[in-house]
Amino acid sequence: MWEIAATERPRAFVLSHDGRDQSHVDLDDPTYLAFDYVRRMGDVVDAAAPVGVPMRVVHVGGAAMTLARYVAATRPTSAQVVLEPDTEVTELVRAELPLPRRSGIKVRPVDGASGVAGLRDAQVDLLVLDAYDDGRVPASLVTVAHFEEVARALTPEGLYLLNLSDRAPFAHTRRVLAGLRAVFADVALGAEPATLRGRRDGNLLVLASRAPVPVAALRTRAARSPAPYKVLDAAQVSDSFGGGAVLTE
Question: What DSSP character marks residue 244?
């Protein structure tokens, strides 16, 4: 069941599903990102393009569209598409947490695999995967075949951002990274030190591109973050997250 609850901030709300928080939205300040992993996703946006420069972004998974609102606020006139098959949550968010007028955000009621397959070649600057089904990214979104569709839809310099939830020994993340390395020229990964050390599960933000991933810019933002985190480059990812078997189905 989807629910929306008020927070201590005026006109700020948390969207939850079956008691699990999914999104935090501040209607007065869309640049306020309450969740640590969403702030890290905002850092990726800022590293990918300067503030004020419009982007073409596709989000696989919508919920309350926190990151899409952030992009709209910091880069007005950006063209954004949210692929969200759950019409129940979309209708709830539209009624209770309406998007700003002329936000440039369009919501399509389709699953991620179908939606990405329907994108034009070189249509997207940034493609974000933040979709979960029972605590795990749907299998159809982490196969080599799907990654090839993502690469096709991205511009040559385009960036693919995946939000994965995992814990040591990171068996699932290793398999996802193996598939990404089969398609993309460069990969990087950001996470809290405690997660990387295996002390607790957490969100691992994986980046992939046919061009160099902006690791240096991300490391600068990581060091300045209210919750500092580590950013691993391709060599470090290979050393720490190698050995996975590619997912083909």
Answer: P
Residue 66: inside a domain: yes
This prediction's pTM: 0.96
In a domain, 224, yes or no: yes
The count of structural domains within the chain is 1
Q: Decide if 10 is inside a domain.
A: no
Query: What is the rounded average pLDDT of the residues 63-91?
Result: 96
- State the residue range of the domain holding 202: 35-241
Peptide bond into 169 cis (omega under 30): yes
| Residue whose C-alpha is closest to residue 74's, from 97, 99, 49, 95 | 49
Residue with tokens 């569709």: 149
Spatial distance between the Cα atoms of 79 and 245, rounded to a whole number of angstroms:
36
H/E element holding 157?
strand 154-166
Question: What is the CATH classification number for the domain harbouring 142?
Answer: 3.40.50.150
Phi-psi region of 85 (alpha: psi -120 to 50; beta: other; left: phi over 0): alpha
The per-residue pLDDT for range 122-160, each reduced to its tens digit, is 999 999 999 987 778 999 999 999 999 999 999 999 999
